[in-house]
């Protein structure tokens, strides 16, 4: 199992821009794991941001360079059919990206 996180930049950024950056990290890790283990598995990537999912699925949008570069990378690394939406309330991984106390973590799906 592996995990990776980054701190938000000091300069202000929008939530969707931070979310697409997180998604790219996840897709990179998935691609690395499959490559290193020489596995041919059908891998699914779940995201709780409809904005990012729409960016990835739409081809004709005029994005800025930041978003466009990340969308291109995700499309190169993974098949678009394997990206799925999960509502934020049901995203058990989201708890770890927000501050929470130990009791919340113990009561969650992670325990």
UniProtKB/TrEMBL annotation:
UniProt-listed PANTHER family: PHD-TYPE DOMAIN-CONTAINING PROTEIN
InterPro entries in the record: Retrotrans_Pao
Gene transcribed to yield this protein: AVEN_27630_1
Domain of life: Eukaryota
Protein name (record): Integrase_H2C2 domain-containing protein
Name of one Pfam family that matches: Peptidase_A17
